[in-house]
Amino acid sequence: MYNFSFSSFTLTARKYTSTSEAVTPTSSYIKTSCAKATYPALCEQSLTPFEKTIQKSPAKLARTALAVSLKRSLSTQAYLNKLKRIKGLKPRERSAIGDCLEEVSDSLDRVSKSIQELKNCDKVKGQEFTWHMSNVQTWVSSALTDENTCMDGFGGKAMEGRVKSSVRAQITSVAHVTSNALALVNNFAQKH
Questions:
Q1: What residues have CB less than 8 Å from 139, skipping those under 6 apart?
Q2: Nearest CA among 75, 56, 102 for reference residue 5
Q3: pTM
Q4: Cβ contact 171:102 at 8 Å
Q5: Average pLDDT of the chain?
Q6: What angle do CA 132, 137, 138 make, to 5 degrees?
Q7: Residue 3 lies in a domain
Q8: Is residue 37 situated within a structural domain?
Q9: Is 18 inside any structural domain?
Q10: Is 32 exposed, middle or buried (0-12, 13-18, 19+ CB in 10 A)?
Q11: Residue 72 lies in a domain
């Protein structure tokens, strides 16, 4: 359903953040907002291609950041599914990849629910807004925990090697964009 790869995403994002381009008010808004994120450069890089959608809306910025996290998670899930089918994996590696897949699936579910819940925030105010926003913050935080927990199965010297490095790179990528999304969600909650 989603044909997305981290390398093509990076290349696309770099195209939009070229220093030869004039800084628009929207990209300035993204830059200022991303300064509060855990990984500001990645935040800018991943969100600038969507500046026309985001405009200067904290809600759209948070939703777009969650959508980037969701797409990155879907890409990681597909990668792990392919990796798990490779012949020659050690049984512990295959098991750790399976556990990681479960964590990524849980994370996907939570981020997806967060996107839907954030849409509900547009329609409400006061305590109801706070309740919906609290759900979003809890789910995104849990998604981040799921992503970080994924690497637990790769502990110990016996698990060192290309498989662990490869999985770590994928999970780190997802965790970083999810961490940025959480920061932008929190910022949106404070501004509302």
A1: 110, 111, 113, 114, 117
A2: 75
A3: 0.82
A4: no
A5: 85
A6: 95
A7: no
A8: yes
A9: no
A10: exposed
A11: yes
- 138: CATH: 1.20.140.40
For residue 29, the one-letter residue type is Y
Residues 6 or more apart whose Cβ sits within 8 Å of residue 146: 103, 104, 106, 107, 110
User: What DSSP state is assigned to residue 156?
Assistant: S
**Alpha-carbon gap, residue 24 to 41, rounded angstroms:** 17
Measure the CA–CA gap between 79 and 82, rounded to whole angstroms.
Answer: 5
Number of domains comprising the chain: 1
Distance CA 167, CA 47 (A): 24
Other beta carbons within 10 Å of 166: 14
CB-CB contact of 36 with 187 (8 Å): yes
pLDDT digits (tens, 9 = 90+) for 10-36: 333 333 334 434 455 657 999 999 998
- Residue 140's domain spans which residues? 23-191
Q: Exposure pattern of 182-191 as b/e (b: 16+ CB <10 Å)?
A: bbbbbbbbee
Six-digit token pair at 72?
Answer: 């990155």
Q: What is the pLDDT of residues 98-150, one digit of tens each?
A: 999 999 999 999 999 999 999 888 778 888 899 989 999 999 999 999 888 98
